[in-house]
Amino acid sequence: METERAREAISHWAQEGESFTPPAWEDFPTIPLYMDQVILYLGESLELFQREESASLLTSSMINNYVKHGLLPHPEKKKYSREHLGALMAICALKQVLSMQDVDTLFGQGPLDRETYALFREAHQRAVRETCQALEKTCREKEDLKQAALLLAVEANAKRAAAERILCELGRQEKPAGKEKRD
Fold first, then answer.
1. pLDDT band at 52 (very low <50, low <70, confident <90, very high)
2. What is the mean pLDDT of the chain?
3. Three-state secondary structure along the chain?
4. Local confidence band at 25 (pLDDT 50, 70, 90 cut-offs)
5. Global confidence as pTM
């Protein structure tokens, strides 16, 4: 009975995920937002990815650290623009699988622009949809949920390792000679 309740909850989550679409650049608020508004907006936009309802994927301390470390441009008069929202959307998703150093290698050349965000958005939406469709099938066919979680985790680990390898090599090429970073 407990497994059936879990299966129903997972199936419901997967159905929500199949229709998940990150906000388009044009759908971001046109007026700059204050920190609390940014956190609320992105929290609602990324609700599907929160492990628990009370857990937040983004806090003001995180945003301040991203600015401090150059992952995010400084806000103008304490307000955050579309460029900030796009970057934060990507950072919130990617920080779950990549180090901040790797995220910086991806986006460290300057603010996240409309085209880069569109690429992120399309890839993210496709990956979530494919995963949720497979998970919905697992639930519908009453396959073993622990086995499904194991396979998803192993696949995620393999893809994370591949992404890290690419970013490690790209990071090496971007460093000036004699300026190797210590791990």
1. confident
2. 89
3. CHHHHHHHHHHHHHHHHHCCCCCCHHHCCCCCEEHHHHHHHHHHHCHHHCCCCCCCCCCHHHHHHHHHCCCCCCCECCEECHHHHHHHHHHHHHCCCCCHHHHHHHHCCCCCCHHHHHHHHHHHHHHHHHHHHHHHHHHHCCCCHHHHHHHHHHHHHHHHHHHHHHHHHHHHHHCCCCCCCCC
4. very high
5. 0.85
